[in-house]
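step=encode ok
step=design start
structure_in=
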């Protein structure tokens, strides 16, 4: 499973890139606002840190405007992926940009039917939001299972399932069980993935015993 980090904070991105585990980045207008930076400037910097896809989202509401913004964003770098909302206009823009060979990420997907539309429009990624479905009492992971099942019926579908709105390590484990291609994860949750109390207590015991030998490997 590929790991993207869901942030526009370059400090977090640089830190995680050092692990060698980072395959890409997703941003959205909320995350750009949180960064307090100019959208073009911050996306360019992020594209220089990570080789993989970096999603930058359009904000126009009509297809023409989205295409214009998408083409402008795509000039930032070759790994810039244009993020488009799952609306009638967004799907129209996705078809257009995909045909031009521009990478696209269709976002705000909340149903399998919507995911079928994105695949038909040639989206590079579909972003189903699991956490926001869980938040309203629905089973977010069921949406991932359904989309993975549908996409796997067709060899022609190349769209990758990008699990979004991730809230906990269990979302990642469940996404892995059904073979989701990518998860975009907040930095805090990526760090939680490393944690296990038995790792901490085991390491503490090993170090204590090692100290008693008086030896050094360094
Ligand atoms: C996806 O690309 C979105 O940026 C993101 O995952 C939304 O997550 P949220 O529901 O935590 O805002």
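sequence_out=
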């Amino acid at each position: 499973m590929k790991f993207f980090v869901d942030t526009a904070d370059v400090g977090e991105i640089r830190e995680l890139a050092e692990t060698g585990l980072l395959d890409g980045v997703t941003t959205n207008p909320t995350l750009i606002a949180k960064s307090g930076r100019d959208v073009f400037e911050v996306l360019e910097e992020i594209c220089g840190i990570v080789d993989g896809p970096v999603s930058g989202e359009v904000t126009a509401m009509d297809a023409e405007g989205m295409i214009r913004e998408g083409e402008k964003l795509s000039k930032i770098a070759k790994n810039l992926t244009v993020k488009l909302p799952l609306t009638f206009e967004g799907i129209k823009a996705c078809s257009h940009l995909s045909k031009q060979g521009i990478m696209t990420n269709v976002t705000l997907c909340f149903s399998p039917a919507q995911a079928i539309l994105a695949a038909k429009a040639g989206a590079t990624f579909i972003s189903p939001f699991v956490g926001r479905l869980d938040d309203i009492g629905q089973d977010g992971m069921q949406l991932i299972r359904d989309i993975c099942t549908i996409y796997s019926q067709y060899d022609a579908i190349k769209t990758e399932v990008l699990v979004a709105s991730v809230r906990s390590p269990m979302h990642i484990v469940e996404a892995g069980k059904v073979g989701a291609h990518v998860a975009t994860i907040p930095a805090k949750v990526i760090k939680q993935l490393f944690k296990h109390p038995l790792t901490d207590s085991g390491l503490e015991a090993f170090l204590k015993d090692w100290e008693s030998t008086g030896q050094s490997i360094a």
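step=design ok
step=annotate ok -> The mean pLDDT is 98.
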